Amino acid sequence: MTGPAALRLGVVGAGGFATFLSGALRDLPDVTVTVVADPDTDRAGRLAGTLAARAVADWQALVAADDVDVVVVATPPARHAETTLAALRAGRHVFSEKPLATTEDDAIAIRDAVAATGRVLVVDHVLRYNPVLRALARLRGPRFAAPSGCPLLGPVRRLAFENDASDEDLGPEHWFWDERVSGGIFVEHGVHFFDAADALIGATPDSVQGILGQRPGSSLVDLAVATTRYPNGALATFAHGFSHAHRCERQLMRIDFGAAEARVTGWIPVRATINLWTDDAGAALVEHLPARAGELLAVDGHRLRDPAVTVLVHRHAGPAPARERGRPRELPHRCRITLDLGGEAAKPYVYAESVRAAMHDLVRCVRTGERPAASITEGVRAVTVAAAAAHSARDDRTVHLGQYPEHHTVCTS
Ligand SMILES: NC(=O)c1ccc[n+]([C@@H]2O[C@H](COP(=O)([O-])OP(=O)(O)OC[C@H]3O[C@@H](n4cnc5c(N)ncnc54)[C@H](O)[C@@H]3O)[C@@H](O)[C@H]2O)c1
Asked: Which residue, by CA, sits nearest to atom 17 of ligand 1?
């Protein structure tokens, strides 16, 4: 018996990320690339040649082609909306590189087109498909709760993402620096982390503040910081500085769960360390985590290689009674949990597998009618928050977000 036919992909844009993405999908049997479009015909030809696909110069010809089921949008951001809208209206499913669009209006137009056409759209928010972040979200949910129903990790109170990123490959002519093409740092890059924070916190922000910094002696904006507030009282800050040599790149995500703190390293997370104080039920849950490593780290379509969940439980490390936020707690046991996908060396593999898992999700949803993890909802929301951060920085005021999905942003001082 043969399975369903592979979905035929048309890749629009044959640059750096399209090349990486095509490599990541190479052994995903559910998809095959049939066409590559790029006005730079050398690039289109080179990528198509490695995939046994044909090359065209014109993206509209690709969207109209009979042998394309899914349009992969991998052009610079300002071109995403027009291509995505045309693809949806031509009846194609869409795998959109992030950001979904560079403006909230365009993102909402795409949302309306997805609703009208019933096509599946996945936005390549790779962090939604990262096993470490998936595990952290699970540890504050019901699956890893004590018999009393109390989850191992409390709700997120604060999240801070520090991203000292490299500009070594971003010469002054690169489209990244042109806000009309990239949407600016919050939109081009920040969307990944606004969306990851939503997944970790389990809520979406109700207000946003942004501030931007310029390279000394230049008008080039290379530092962007945003703070978001969530209806459950959590706050998050996101700092992105594209001003470092490759060798000086460093990223840290710190998440405060009250009695627990998680530190995640790498912008593609490959390792997390959680230090926590807990009660008897919590210590028992921690002790069982290594045996549940597969369940904890599972992401459909992401093939884990050498995952390790290690724990250290120091029972009765302190007196049991404690107080936080005015409430008594029993916290006698100190624990450490480490989630490891293979350390820094595993980053390219984990990155590629996350892209693979995102495409696997699209295929699954085309076949089942279910909703992807990084759907149009997440795509629109991330663009909305990013655009609000940029808006806030420009106008020097807090931006309050209306209730999704009707949110056009409302500015108040
Ligand atoms: N998901 C991720 O982790 C991730 C990582 C890096 C980049 N990206 C995204 O991927 C996209 C592409 O980035 P990149 O680094 O590959 O850029 P790039 O500049 O290397 O490549 C872009 C390509 O698009 C082509 N192009 C421009 N206009 C076109 C059009 N109208 N039709 C067809 N092709 C066109 C260009 O000629 C170029 O070859 C961006 O949206 C970027 O944000 C995502």
From this structure: 15
CATH topology of domain 128-350: Dihydrodipicolinate Reductase; domain 2 (3.30.360)
Residue in this structure with the two tokens 């590559």, named with its chain if needed: 36
pLDDT digits (tens, 9 = 90+) for 172-217: 999 999 999 999 999 999 999 999 999 999 999 999 999 999 999 9
Strands 31-37 and 54-56: parallel
Domain 7-126+357-374: which topology? Rossmann fold (3.40.50)
CA of residue 275 to ligand 1 center, whole Å = 39
Q: Which of 287, 263, 270 lies closest to 335, judged by CA?
A: 287
- Are 7-126+357-374 and 128-350 the same fold in CATH? no
To test the pocket of ligand 1, the residue of 46, 97, 354 to mutate (highest count of ligand atoms within 8 Å of its CB) is 97
Q: Domain residue spans in the chain?
A: 7-126+357-374, 128-350
DSSP, residue by residue, 145-168: B-TTS-BSS----EEEEEEEEE-T
Per-residue pLDDT tens digits for 216-272 = 999 999 999 999 999 999 999 999 999 999 999 999 999 999 999 999 988 899 999
Q: Where are the beta strands (DSSP E) in 266-365?
A: 271-278, 308-314, 321-324, 327-330, 333-340
Parallel/antiparallel/unpaired status of strands 93-96 and 70-73 = parallel
State the closest ligand 1 atom to the C-alpha of 44, by its place in the atom list counted from 1: 39
pTM of the model as a whole: 0.95
Instruction: Using the mean position of ligand 1's atoms as its centre, give its distance from the Cα of residue 328 in Å.
Output: 53
Terminal alpha carbon distance of the chain: 64
Tell me, in angstroms, the distance from the centre of ligand 1 to residue 369's CA: 29
Find the residues whose C-beta lies inside 6 A of ligand 1: 12-18, 37-40, 43, 59, 74-77, 79, 97-98, 124, 126, 188
Cα separation of 228 and 209, whole Å? 7
